[in-house]
Amino acid sequence: MSTLLRILKYVKPSAKWAFAALGLMVVATVVDLLAPWVLRNIFDEGIARKNMGTVLLLTLALLGMQGVKSLGAFAQGYTQELVGQNVVFTLRKEMYAHLQRLSFTYYDKAQTGQLMSRMTGDIEAVKNFVGFGAMMLITGIATFFGTLIFMLSMQAEVTLLSLSTIPPLLVVMWLFNRKVGPAWGNIREQMGRLTTTLQENISGIRVVKAFASEKKEQSKFAERNEQNFDTNMQRAKLEATAFPLMGFFGGLTFLIMIWLGAVYVAKGQMSLGTFMAFQWYTWGLIWPLNMLGWQINIFQQALKAAPRVFEVIDTKVDIESPADGGIDAARIGGTVTFENVSFAFDTTAAEPSHVLSNIQLQVKQGEVIAILGATGSGKSSLIALLSRYYDATAGSVSMDGVDVRNYNLEGLRQSIGIVPQETFLFSATIHDNVAYGRPDATQEMVEAAARKAQIHDFIVNMPYGYETLIGERGVGLSGGQRQRVALARAILMDPPILVLDEATASVDTATESAIHEALLEVMKGRTTFIIAQRLSSIRRADRIVVLDNGRIAQMGTQQELLEQDGFFRRLLEQQEMAAASNS
Ligand SMILES: Nc1ncnc2c1ncn2[C@@H]1O[C@H](COP(=O)(O)OP(=O)(O)OP(=O)(O)O)[C@@H](O)[C@H]1O
Fold first, then answer.
1. Whether the Cβ atoms of residue 564 and residue 546 lie closer than 8 Å to each other
2. Residue of 108, 355, 422 best suited for mutating to test ligand 1, as the one with most atoms within 8 Å of CB
3. What is the per-residue pLDDT across 424-471, written as a single tens digit (0 to 9) for each?
4. How far is the CA of 101 from the centre of ligand 1 (A)?
């Protein structure tokens, strides 16, 4: 019930259209109810009394009524679709906006395919109910009871006796409703899983092919496809049993009415006109009942689909700006302090395993900090706390002495230029990809950023220069080129804090040293965090932080760390040995 009420809330803004559709429905229903009554009078007042004028007049009235009904049906069809589409529009807008606000913690667990199927199929199922479904349900109920009133007023006995088929019909409907609900729930869930399998396969198609796993993937998909097939067939079996049974009882009503009607006409207790009108009216009883089977289907589908959409919309946003909008981060200088910071990804676990423990680090404005450590030691996690991708579980991260949680989130993130390990490029021109964070940037600004990232020469040699489409539908770029586009993207933001996460990992040594030269310029005056495995990438760091299993194991200048027996010296020795054996 609460789901239904919540769905109706989305209809509220279109209330005037919904009422217009209802009004038109009432017109069409009244016309429908009056038509058999006019027919009765054609017989009883016209034909029986040989009054052809009345016959002509009433036939013309029937024609006019048919015209009004058709016009009403057209307008109603349009308006009910308008109401449905408005609901779809609002739900999609709300869900999309909420998805933009949800944090990394949500996306760590979310399945893209499930989200896509909720955004499309499930919302569509809700629309089918609020538009067509609900209107047909109301039309059906109005027609049924309206018809009943007309019939009872004309001949109560025949009407009541004909209705003896209604109780078994209601039992069939009740059983169908009970069984078809869970089937629709399964179908909606399975569609989500099917879309997830498809989406993962397409995103990971390179891995699939590299491991020649096409057959395995096909059978995984086939399994889910079969589940969906089976559940749909179970649903079809329910429909195939229930609908004809409903049809049978509906037909029986009609036959009983004809038989009883004939008996009553013969006995003189019913006029021929009423008998003819009853034949017409009986359909007014039967079709709403028959249609009810479909309506139950549409209703149950919506009832199972809507909570899947609401679940996303209701997910709590755990990382956002403070309620008052937060402190403007536009003038952040770049002093960063980690004050006894500990962090675990899953804080809901009974014993959260800490990825970072008791991090104590003060970074001056303009300082270049290199973060080193074995894989999985927590380097990316440490950096993720700066932009509030996640919040520290204990302790605090502050910038210019203000806890990051007190800044306006948008401003905070705009103050931190990040070149991530994995670059995502949008299906857009290379210009738009570089200017992603600053769409208002001039061509000169974009080019200057690209020059600093050592990618300008490559771009101008592309088929359409900066206007070349890249990403899914455009030209592919190599790993190193993608990384340099990401670097240009960050440089263009002109942020006081720069984060380079293995930013030169996938470029050759010559490009790497060229980028480093350029970076020297870029890093000037900016607080920079460089996560790197290669020593060449950190040569210009003022200070090095070595992480070990989420704790700071070493910290100091390159010279200081060289004098200690620790991770840094071992790394240096290893890399020097590797360089010697390569030469
Ligand atoms: N989204 C996540 N959810 C849960 N655990 C995670 C998540 N991301 C990373 N971890 C875990 O946190 C630990 C630290 O990971 P992190 O990515 O910070 O390490 P890293 O030092 O940057 O590693 P690498 O050098 O391989 O990039 C790892 O043990 C990893 O398994």
1. no
2. 355
3. 888 889 999 999 988 899 999 999 999 988 899 999 998 899 999 887
4. 23
Q: Write down the domain spans for the chain.
A: 2-314, 366-374+417-582
The phi and psi torsions of 550 (rounded to 5 degrees) equal: 80, 5
| Residue range 464-500, pLDDT digits in tens | 999 998 876 556 788 788 888 988 999 999 899 999 8
- For 275-302, write each residue's pLDDT tens digit: 999 988 888 888 888 788 788 889 999 9
Percent of the chain with pLDDT over 90: 48
Residue in 379, 506, 530 to alter for ligand 1 test, most ligand atoms within 8 A of Cβ: 379
Coil, helix or strand for 294? helix
Ligand 1 atom closest to the CA of 373, numbered from 1: 21
Of the CA atoms within 13 Å of residue 574, those in its CB half-sphere come to 9
For residues 147 and 150, give the distance between their C-alpha atoms in angstroms, rounded to a whole number.
Answer: 5
- Asked if 361 contacts 547 with a C-beta cutoff of 8 angstroms, the reply is no
- CA of 109 relative to ligand 1 center, distance in Å: 15
Ligand 1 atom nearest to CA at 381: 18
Q: Which residue has the tokens 């769409």?
A: 439
Taking 90 as the threshold, does the pLDDT of residue 250 lie above it? no
Ligand 1, atom 1, lies closest to the CA of 108
Atom 6 of ligand 1: nearest residue by CA position: 345
When pLDDT is averaged across residues 46-52 and rounded to a whole number, the result is: 87
Query: For ligand 1, atom 29, which residue shows the shortest CA distance?
Result: 376
Query: What pLDDT is attached to residue 503?
Result: 58
For a pocket test of ligand 1, which of 380, 389, 552, 571 has the largest count of ligand atoms closer than 8 A to its C-beta? 380
Domain 2-314, CATH among 3.80.30.20, 1.20.1560.10, 1.20.1250.20, 3.40.50.300? 1.20.1560.10
CA 231 remoteness from chain centre: 24
CA distance 176 to 181: 9
Between helix 15-41 and helix 52-101 the angle, nearest 10°, is 160
Q: Which residues line ligand 1 (CB under 6 A)?
A: 108, 345, 355, 373, 375-381
Using a cut of 0.90, tell me whether the model's pTM lies above it: no
Averaged pLDDT score across all residues of the chain: 88
Atom of ligand 1 minimally distant from the CA of 533: 25
Closest atom of ligand 1 to CA, residue 104: 1
**Looking at ligand 1, which residue's alpha carbon is closest to its atom 31?**
376
| Ligand 1 midpoint to CA 15 (Å) | 50
Is the per-residue pLDDT at 265 higher than 60? yes
Return the CATH number of the domain spanning residue range 366-374+417-582: 3.40.50.300
The alpha carbon of 160 is separated from its chain's Cα centroid by a whole number of angstroms, namely 51
Q: What is the pLDDT of residue 348?
A: 73
